[in-house]
Amino acid sequence: MFVDLTVSESDSSHSLPYKMLVLDLDDTLLRDDYSISARNKEMLMKAQALGVKVVLASGRPTPAMLQYAEELKLDVFDSYLISFNGAVVTAMKQNEVIFERSLTMDEVHSIYDYGVENKVHVITYSDKGVISETESEYIDVELGLTGLPLHKVFSFKAEVQTSAVKCILLESPDYLKVLEPKLKAARPDLSIARSKPFFLEVMPKGIDKAASIAFLIDKLGIKQSEVIAVGNAGNDLTMVKFAGLGIWVDNVDPDLRHHADAIVASNNEDGVAEVVEKYILN
Predict the structure, then answer these.
(1) Which residue blocks in the chain are alpha helix, DSSP H?
(2) What CATH number has the domain spanning 105-204?
(3) pTM > 0.85
(4) Regarding beta strands 199-204 and 167-170, do their DSSP bridges make them parallel or antiparallel, or are they unpaired?
(5) Domain residue spans in the chain?
(6) What is the pLDDT of residues 96-141, one digit of tens each?
């Protein structure tokens, strides 16, 4: 496939109703095998050639997003990654972190204590990999998604002696569905959302994907009404509601379907390409 990357952004983007397209990765842009389909890639390259900023926004750590940023040439198009559910924003052209917020050590320790009290697995991240006292099938999913090693420790709190970007509580979907509202009620000082049915993500207060999009569009001079956001899960809800056009792929959690402006095909059926064709190219 050849896509002409020489189209000037100077004039082409001014007439577009949407100037930024923000995409969740897992279960949204990515198929179940964690690949970007040829059709999705083709449409995203066309959108970028017109001057649309394609921004990837994920709960994943930044290193686990880079292969997709490179595949879509986000550095060439001077675009951005939103990682750790909004806690980190990276400018790809400069390979530079331009925004970062972390949980304090005390917050991480209190989240760990809550997890132990409620009998769930707790993980965070460091340069050693995924930090945990325990092992489980759900932690294995995170290891597979991120490509990071498990650094299993005897004492989580002894290991984590500094701030951390986020924590995840992991257990069965049915259990976390009950635990989520309890944790939100107990800790209104934190941002809490589920990214997968068995991942309950905990970030600093005010940190989510919508907040990072707001930071970016202010920096770039893009209006809120000029943003499309596409997702599938609870941690995408803030950005889908924030965007001028909020879209779910069809495999969205049924409890969330009514929150979007539109629903397109599933992650395995090129839903993102459908968004580009309907709302950008047309």
Answers:
(1) 9-12, 38-49, 66-71, 105-117, 137-146, 156-159, 173-186, 209-220, 237-242, 271-276
(2) 3.30.1240.10
(3) yes
(4) antiparallel
(5) 9-101+207-281, 105-204
(6) 999 999 999 999 999 999 999 999 999 999 999 999 999 999 999 9
Asked whether the beta carbons of 108 and 163 are under 8 A apart, the reply is: yes
Query: In the sheet where 129-132 sits, what is the strand order?
Result: 150-152, 129-132, 121-126, 167-170, 199-204, 190-196
Task: Please give the DSSP secondary-structure letter assigned to residue 4.
Answer: -
Provide the 10 A C-beta neighbour count for residue 128.
Answer: 12
Given a contact cutoff of 8 angstroms between Cβ atoms, the answer to whether 81 and 98 are in contact is no
For domain 9-101+207-281, the CATH class is alpha beta
Helix, strand or coil for residue 133?
coil
Tokens of 264: 């397109």
Side chain identity at residue 136, one-letter code:
S
